[in-house]
Design a protein that fits this description.
There is one protein chain. With about 120 residues, the protein is an alpha/beta fold. The chain has one domain: Rossmann fold. The protein has five helices and seven strands; from the N terminus they run βαβαβββαβαβα. α2 packs parallel to α3. The chain is globular and about 35 Å long. The termini are close together.
């Protein structure tokens, strides 16, 4: 079992990001919020999160899947939860090669997400 204290949240939709950040912080997680691929990779390196939540489509046409791959290349092994508004097989296949990755389809049920985090 992994003890989750620090979460990196990469989400470009401000309302979704702020609501999810608030919910996670109410559960006593320390959350760093970013909105694009470059920020996600850089903050992951500096913050050393216990869990990473990456939206697949990020600001500036950047990509959470690429961010996830780059994070793994840096040797960061924290579990990654990808979020997306589509459930296409292609998306599922693209994240298969990223170790410890999971997919949640939007709108994300926050109770289900919290339960998943607690069971990691």
């Amino acid at each position: 079992m992994i003890i989750i204290q620090k979460i990196l949240l990469a989400e470009d939709e401000l309302i979704i990001a702020k609501v999810l950040q608030k919910i996670l912080e109410q559960r006593h997680f320390e959350v760093r919020l970013v909105s694009d691929e470059t920020e996600a990779v850089n903050v992951a390196s500096d913050f050393n999160p216990d869990l990473i939540i990456l939206d697949i489509h990020l600001r500036n046409k950047s990509c959470g899947i690429r961010a996830g791959r780059d994070i793994r290349k840096k040797g960061i092994t924290s579990p990654i939860i990808f979020t997306t508004g589509n459930s296409f097989e292609q998306t599922k296949n693209e994240i298969k090669d990223i170790s410890q990755s999971h997919l949640f389809i939007k709108p994300v049920d926050t109770d289900q997400l919290i339960k998943f985090i607690e069971e990691l």
